[in-house]
Design brief:
Layout (H helix, E strand, L loop, with lengths): L2 E7 L4 H10 L3 E3 L2 E8 L2 E8 L4 E6 L15 E4 L1 E2 L2 E2 L1 E2 L1 H9 L19 E4 L8 E7 L4 E8 L2 E8 L3 E3 L2
Antiparallel strand pairs: 1-5, 1-6, 1-9, 2-5, 3-4, 7-8, 10-11, 10-14, 11-12, 12-13
Keywords: Transcription, Transcription antitermination, Transcription regulation
InterPro entries: NGN-like_dom, NGN_dom_sf, NusG-like, Translation_prot_SH3-like_sf
Organism: Magnetovibrio blakemorei
């Protein structure tokens, strides 16, 4: 019976590993998100793995030669449990896929929130202030535009520290 398994990859080798495993006939899922990268006064949007150093493979341990995965380019190993790889539930993959947009990239903004939404900060130095959701960073943190003393200030906080303003 087919199940999902987690593959640990070398640093920044997720794409390469996914390509090689796919060429070997494995069904691969590498969820990615869009990140804004600033370099030399330019900003561009790039795709990055949602889970740095990991990807998912869907296979049947009894039917497929899964041990070859550990020797594939860019792969460290399948995440083990005793003497076999540890499976994860398909619901986890379904939850990640449910957050994908039409381009197949995963949205880091929680459901109900989107870029440009008016939010209220719950705790901290800016508790009860309202701000505009500007950007979501890698570490489950958001960048907000906060109107403070007559100007707009960029502040960072965690996603959990926000409420959407109706």
């Amino acid at each position: 019976m087919k199940a999902w398994y987690v593959v640990r990859t070398k640093t920044r080798s997720e794409e390469q590993s996914a390509r090689h495993l796919s060429n070997q006939g494995f069904e691969i899922y590498l969820p990615r998100y869009r990140k804004q990268v600033r370099h030399a006064r330019t900003v561009k949007s790039v795709l990055r793995p949602l889970f740095s150093g990991y990807l998912f493979v869907h296979m049947d341990l009894g039917q497929q030669r899964w041990r070859s995965i550990n020797g594939s380019v860019g792969v460290i190993s399948l995440v083990p449990s005793a003497d076999a790889p540890k499976s994860i539930t398909g619901e986890i993959i379904d939850l990640i896929r449910a957050r994908e947009d039409k381009d197949g990239t995963v949205s880091l903004v929680p459901q109900g929130l989107k870029k440009g939404d008016q939010v209220r900060i719950r705790d901290g130095a800016f508790a009860e202030y309202e701000a505009l959701l500007e950007e979501v960073s890698d570490e489950k943190r958001v960048i907000l535009l906060l109107k403070c003393m007559g100007s707009e200030v960029r502040v960072s906080t965690s996603l959990e520290n926000l409420d959407k303003v109706s």
